[in-house]
Design brief:
This protein has about 260 residues and is α/β, with parallel strands linked by helices. It contains ten helices and eight strands. Strands 1-2-3-4-5-6-7-8 form an eight-stranded parallel barrel, surrounded by four helices. The structure holds 2-phosphoglycolic acid (PGA). 2-phosphoglycolic acid binds near residues 176, 215, 216, 236 and 237.
């Protein structure tokens, strides 16, 4: 059975920056600024295109590399896709799956479930994203929505593998909006998600193995509250991860 990771903070650079040069400069500044930090696992998820330059630079061995997406097959005629094996060759260890920005352009729960399985098969930690729209939140439908996303996303995951999966709660309405979720709501949602997973595996003690992360308009001001008040084990940071000083402050706030 897997054990929960130490605190985990994931930088999701999305489709930024625009060149290898900028990506390397950002990565180097983070690596330098975090070189003495031992309490938190920091994962940087650049665009696929910038992963080789970062790896070949040999910098930042204190940071881990993740991908923002991947395909589920190992190789073959899949135009435009990137496989787990290709990423693994670059030392990638984590992969964000089912991000709200991908769900919005049509990625389905069925596709996400296949990717989660493929990630585990190659030895990655899948970061399974779940989240609800503002309408779902306001109407109370959020719990059904999250339960469904979790049930589908974890369909091919065995109980003993749960320690190798991270669950990211990122409310759609909080991603890239500066409208972060309050710690109380975030806590209630975490407990609900962990209870739901306990139900799927018929194991009420499963929460000790679940690596729960929060994402959505995280800043250095609110970062600590998700860990200390809402009980998450870590964060995923989008916009603020492109500002190295702010990102380092966020990491220190959860350490
Ligand atoms: P954001 O992105 O920090 O820019 O809101 C969060 C996310 O990608 O989930």
């Amino acid at each position: 059975m897997g054990t929960k990771a130490k605190r985990l903070v994931v930088a999701n650079w999305k489709m930024n920056p625009k060149s290898d040069k900028e990506a390397l400069a950002l990565f180097k500044e983070l690596a330098e600024g975090l070189k003495d930090l031992k309490e938190v696992d920091v994962v940087v998820c650049p665009s696929f295109l910038h992963i080789p330059a970062i790896v070949y630079s040999g910098k930042g061995r204190n940071l881990q590399l993740g991908a923002q997406n991947m395909f589920w097959e190992e190789k073959g005629a899949f135009t435009g896709e990137v496989s787990p094996a290709q990423l693994s060759g670059f030392g990638v260890k984590y992969v964000i799956l089912g991000h709200s920005e991908r769900r919005k352009i049509g990625e389905t729960d069925e596709i996400i479930a296949k990717k989660v399985r493929a990630a585990l098969d190659v030895g990655f930690t899948p970061i399974l994203c779940i989240g609800e729209t503002l309408d779902d939140r306001n109407s109370g439908e959020w719990s059904n929505r999250l339960n469904f996303q979790l049930r589908c996303g974890l369909e091919n995951v065995r109980r003993e593998e749960m320690g190798n999966v991270a669950i990211l709660y990122e409310p759609f309405w909080a991603v890239g909006t500066s409208r972060a979720c309050g710690a109380k709501e975030a806590r209630e949602t975490r407990l609900f998600a962990e209870d739901s997973i306990g139900g799927f595996y018929n194991d009420p003690n499963i929460s000790k193995d679940i690596n729960s992360l929060y994402g959505g308009s995280v800043t250095s001001k609110n970062a600590g509250s998700y860990v200390k008040e809402a009980g998450y084990n870590g964060l995923l940071v989008g916009g603020a991860s492109l500002d190295p000083k702010e990102f380092i402050k966020i990491i220190k706030a959860v350490a």
